[in-house]
Write a structure and sequence with these properties.
By secondary structure, the chain is α/β, with parallel strands linked by helices. It is about 35% helix and about 25% strand. The strands form three sheets. It has an eight-stranded mixed β-sheet with strand order 5-6-4-11-12-13-10-14, with helices on both faces. Helix 1 crosses helix 7. The longest helix has 24 residues. The chain is globular. The protein starts with 5 loop residues before the first strand and ends with a helix.
Length: about 350
């Protein structure tokens, strides 16, 4: 008989979060990570927890909204339990509005956001002021949403690890075999394994590159300009990302595409021009075919479950993914939305 109620395979954001949620509910949890905590895409730099546009509502947008609204209390409990700060802040976000049509659309979403976001966050259209921490806007107007948040991915992984340790969760690094009920949250390599095990392509990897600058804007909103996320962190750094690459030869190598990101970021925000480059990162992000997180029981493998496919929104989705999987595994309560199930990816 297994000495644990649940084994979690994978020390990325989904694995850590699901292990935490199960442990906080009183389950005996073991977490196994083959390489190192945050060794895959969860060891990145950006940490932009940004919502979808408040229109054309669907289950994915609703799930993400609920997760973003849960996040402040969820991360605060993790920080308090383990004594480690994940760098979370609901900082808001500014985006330039490029033309009159986009301005009209942005203003139309103000009322829609009030309804869809349940009055708990705002979508605003504000005049540009020309300030240093503000991207140039051709129309003179900016979108300011108050739902966007940020955290530092590496600090968040450290905070979850500390909280798990405080809860008595056993964390094993290396090749270990699971026992008993098992949740597989093994990222990109796990998707490749699933493609083989299910004899169907359910997901793939997309390479991303990001960088970190020594520029302190820790209390300012994050920016989205020229398709770049510009994210100030609590430690006085600012992250810039990211690329989306379907073809690569080296999954962890940075190249001229990252140099282009730096050039574009400094053009969009001249205040970054003199900021020192202190880190470069590349990794493979797991994307399910449905482009939503892939959650649920492993088809044909009783007692085994899957949480994968976080892609670009894994950290933002993590609180809701964790509670959803804990409900399923510990309580037998299935609240997985349409489009998120493993079976949904088998039909694509």
């Amino acid at each position: 008989m297994a000495s644990h109620d649940l084994t979690v395979m994978g020390g990325g954001i989904f694995g850590l979060s699901c292990a935490w949620e199960a442990a906080r509910r009183g389950a005996r949890v073991r977490l196994i990570e083959r390489h190192a905590i945050g060794a895959g895409s969860s060891g990145g730099l950006v940490g932009a927890l940004a919502p979808h546009v408040p229109e054309n509502w669907n289950p994915k947008k609703q799930f993400q909204l609920e997760s973003l609204l849960m996040a402040p209390d969820w991360w605060a409990e993790i920080a308090a339990t383990g004594g480690t700060d994940p760098g979370y802040l609901r900082s808001g976000r500014l985006q330039p509005i490029p033309d009159d049509r986009a301005l009209q659309n942005a203003r139309a979403r103000i009322i829609e956001a009030r309804t869809l976001w349940q009055g708990r966050a705002d979508w605003r259209v504000i005049p540009a002021t020309g300030g240093a921490w503000e991207p140039h806007s051709p129309t003179g107007w900016l979108i300011h949403d108050t739902l966007t948040a940020r955290l530092h991915p590496r600090q968040a992984a450290a905070a979850l690890t500390a909280a798990l340790n405080a809860k008595g969760v056993r964390i094993d690094i290396g090749d270990h075999s699971p026992q008993g009920p098992t949740l597989w949250a093994t990222g990109y390599t796990g998707l490749l394994d699933l493609n083989t095990a299910l004899d169907h392509p359910v997901g793939a990897g997309v390479k991303g590159q990001a960088l970190l600058l020594q520029h302190d804007a820790r209390d300012l909103p994050q920016l989205f300009a020229d398709a770049l996320h510009i994210v100030p962190h609590a430690d006085g750094t600012t992250a810039i990302g990211s690329t989306s690459e379907n073809d690569w030869s080296d999954p962890t190598a940075t190249d001229a595409q990252l140099d282009d990101i730096l050039t574009r970021a400094r053009a969009a925000l001249p205040v970054l021009g003199a900021a020192k480059l202190i880190d470069r990162w590349a990794g493979i992000r797991p994307r399910a075919r449905s482009r939503a997180p892939m959650l649920g029981a492993w088809p044909g493998r009783p007692g085994h479950f899957i949480a994968n496919g976080g892609f670009k929104i894994g950290f933002g989705m993590a609180p809701k993914v964790a509670t959803t999987m804990a409900d399923l595994i510990l309580n037998g309560q299935d609240t997985i939305p349409k489009g998120f199930r493993v079976e949904d990816n088998l039909r694509l």
